[in-house]
Amino acid sequence: DARSEVEQKIDDALRGKIEEFLELSNYDWELANPSGRASDHITDLMTFMQTTFLSFTNLPPVLARHVCMQACKHLASRLMAMLLDPDLKAISMGALEQFNLDVIQCELFTSQCPVPGFENGTLTMTFADLRQLLDLLMSFDWTSYLADFGQERNKYVRVKPTTAIAVLEKIMEFDRRKNSFFGKDKNKDRKKLLDTVLKQLRSLAHA
Fold this sequence. Notes:
GO biological process, one term: intracellular protein transport
Largest sheet: none
Keywords: Coiled coil, Exocytosis, Transport
Function: Component of the exocyst complex involved in the docking of exocytic vesicles with fusion sites on the plasma membrane.
Distance between the termini: 45 Å
Organism: Plectus sambesii
Helix content: 55-70%
């Protein structure tokens, strides 16, 4: 029907614009320290989305909310895909912190979205998978994750073991390269801990 066709055209156009902004991203995945603010391409993308959704006042509210929700879901999915990209072999904690700043910027947009009618927190939930994964990786709260795995109380309930493994292996690979470069095995305790965590995650993934 006509409305479905309009929805699809707007969805496709917005996805195309999101892709254009993401193509401008130039992440240094071995960054030593984050910049302290969101990356330019994310800031520019959020400005574009804010302006675009403000112009949706002439659309039926249901259609405007649908398009906004789909755009945020697509962006969250694409950001997750960046982290999980099999061609990306190593990630520093500095790069992860910078990536986190970008996700925070996206979450801030969802909390202040100009499209009316969303229930509180509904739009922000589109980034929940990323948020829980980043919180887990940056806090190294593996004890809680493993102890509460499979239980509703697990604050990282959206993080699949396979996803955690994929990113943790990249972090460990960066550590390995850095230690190899300096010619000595620094942080042996950290390596031992991560090896143990990785082994337990693999057990969960194959359970």
